[in-house]
Amino acid sequence: MKPATIERIRNFTTDRDWDQFHSPANLAKSIAIEASELLECFQWDEQNYDLDAVKEELADVIVYCQDMLDKLGLDVDEIVNAKMTKNEAKYPVAKAKGKADKYNKL
Q1: H-type helices in the chain, by residue range?
Q2: Does pTM top 0.85 for this prediction?
Q3: In angstroms, rounded to a whole number, what is the distance separating the alpha carbons of residues 36 and 23?
Q4: Within its chain, how far is the Cα of 102 from the centroid?
Q5: Which residue ranges form the domains of the chain, and what is each CATH number?
Q6: pLDDT tens digits, residue range 66-106?
């Protein structure tokens, strides 16, 4: 995400004095709620969905994720790369390519 976008999210929260409501637990709940609303976009028809609705719900998830990164003092690149390193070890290309199996079933 571009620094200006991150700053815009931070300012939105700060300007409204909402940091007081952003405990890690509350943010995790909000992420789950918004992710459920994203899933709802595909509830009855996985092919013919409203892309504008998908974009709005996906943006809500991302905004809450950025809020949680800030609350916990985390760097998105650092935690994503650490997780990708683990995923690459769990799902080696030679075993996982073209398969949807969980790592312990490869």
Answers
A1: 3-15, 24-40, 51-72, 76-90, 93-96
A2: yes
A3: 20
A4: 21
A5: 1-74 (1.10.287.1080), 75-106 (no CATH)
A6: 999 999 999 999 999 999 999 999 999 998 989 888 888 88
